[in-house]
Amino acid sequence: LWWAHFPPTRLTRPPPAAAGSGPVGPCGRRAYAPPAERKRFYQNVSISQGEGGFEINLDHRKLKTPQAKLFTVPSEALAIAVATEWDSQKDTIKFYTMHLTTLCNTALDNPTQRNKTQLIRAAVKFLETDTVCYRVEEPPALAELQKNEWDPVIAWAEKRYNVTIGSSTSILGPNIPASTKETFVSHLASYNMWALQGIEFVITQLKSLILSMSLIDRHITVEKAVLLSRLEEEYQIRRWGNVEWAHDYDLCELRARTAAGTLFVHLCSESSTVKHKLLQD
Amino acid sequence: MAALGAPLRTLRALLRELRHAAGRSYRDSPAYRHVIAAFRAHRVTSEKLCRAQQELHFQAATYLCLLRSVREHEALHREYHGKGERSPQEVAGLVGFRLPQQPGGKG
Predict the structure, then answer these.
(1) Closest Cβ–Cβ partner in A220, A256, A270 for B70
(2) Using CB atoms, which residue from A84, A259, A281 is nearest to B69?
(3) How high is the pLDDT of residue A6?
């Protein structure tokens, strides 16, 4: 295994393939992808507070991002959750299960080098192909299910944001008015850069801006959002049967990623001061 | 507001997941202590619709979903996708054959 030949402190240095050679390294691997598995090389995981925020310590070493920046997070709760991810690795470090760490790395490194406007634009663009707006006409049972499950979410979004969205059975999708898009753009602009990375991540996972906003506004749970996102799959599973190694595998992965993204957004956008209840209330 | 059920149930399930994740010294782990402290801090409130309490409960439920899904995903991965390739001996054994044993190696 090529990465095993590098000294144990590899995590504190950028991967060799990333050193200024563009997206594809010399061995043809994507430069920003970490190795799939690596032995656990640390005993203790702890948190400390530095100048930029909270840092993760693996034994005495400070955790760094894939681009060798110091790993700092603004929220203590987020740092604790990341530390828990690292601490729960047994013999091998399974990077593909460490979703919060990955999100933090993305926020710190910004490998796609997008600014806030570009992120918001990418997020709102999803509305044109939003899952809950795309309806089938047959089979009628599925069309009915989509109407019963998805119409309430669209109605909620239209009421909450005072916009018109609608749904469509045409292949071109719904016709979203420009004012609707502008409303979402200005709403998303109120989130900071970190939270936006999380929001864009959740939208990409659920394939729906409406479901993501519904989730982030705490209108539905993660399980429900994932169910609504996979509505057609659930319908087919109920009809034809469940295949554990494919369906449940995908379901668990989608739930994990969506939950991580949602938690990330909330932890990056809350204030850390505890608001004491006023007696006048 | 999302339909979350009883906060106590979420808390218990969350602590159980943290126990699975941490192992022996789970009670000393920062996550365990943080969760318990957060729930304790928000317990004393007279109002049923306390917004901060609901926010905390939602966060706890989300974190619970994350831990549970990661554990289940890993278990499924180990079960179905983690075994790698079979050796030539195993493949031959699937159809009841055995590989020939030649003194000088295979021909």
Answers:
(1) A256
(2) A259
(3) 45
Contact B29 A87 (CB under 8 A): yes
- In chain B, the residue whose alpha carbon lies closest to the alpha carbon of A37 is B82
Q: How many CB pairs under 8 A join A and B?
A: 101
User: Is residue A150's pLDDT more than 50?
Assistant: yes
Per the CB < 8 A criterion, the answer to whether B39 and B56 are in contact is yes
Q: What is the pTM of this model?
A: 0.83
Q: What is the pLDDT of residues A199-213, one digit of tens each?
A: 999 999 999 999 999
Q: Is the pLDDT at A13 greater than 60, yes or no?
A: no
Closest chain A CA to residue B45: A277
User: Which member of A100, A255, A270 has the closest CB to residue B65?
Assistant: A255
Q: Where are the beta strands (DSSP E) in chain A?
A: 37-39, 45-49, 54-58, 61-62, 72-73, 92-94
Please judge whether B58 and A218 are an interchain contact, meaning their C-beta atoms are less than 8 angstroms apart.
yes
Which is nearest to B66 in space by CA: A97, A86, A105?
A: A97
Right CATH for A2-15+25-109 from 3.30.2180.10, 1.10.357.10, 3.40.50.11270, 3.40.50.1240: 3.30.2180.10
CB atoms within 10 A of CB A157: 24
The DSSP symbol for A219 reads S
ipTM field:
0.83
Give the pLDDT band of residue A148 (cuts 50, 70, 90).
very high
